[in-house]
Amino acid sequence: VMQELGLVGLRIQRMPNESDLEFGIPSQYSYMTVCAPSCHDCSTLRAWWEEDEERRQRFFKNVM
User: Fold this and answer.
1) pTM of the entire structure?
2) Is residue 36 within 8 Å of 47, Cβ to Cβ?
């Protein structure tokens, strides 16, 4: 519906819609989707990167 109306979607990579994923996969998002690393509901990218080394390593290994 959003695509038909020309509305842009928003996805937060650290909050994927799929319950089996820890991180969203931006390359699989539709063309009309903005991908952001964080939002007002989570820590800034820098804070997250510094506060959770294990998760950061999984992100680097699986996403980067």
Assistant:
1) 0.75
2) no
Number of domains, the chain: 1
Give ∠ CA 18-21-24 in degrees, rounded to 5: 80
Q: pLDDT tens, 2-59?
A: 888 889 999 999 999 888 999 999 999 988 999 998 899 989 989 998 998 999 999 9
- Spatial CB neighbours of 42, under 8 Å, sequence gap ≥ 6: 12, 14, 15, 48
Identify the domain containing residue 9 by its residue range. Answer: 2-62
| Dihedral in degrees, nearest 10, Cα atoms 7, 1, 33, 27 | -160
How many whole angstroms separate alpha carbon 21 and alpha carbon 15?
9
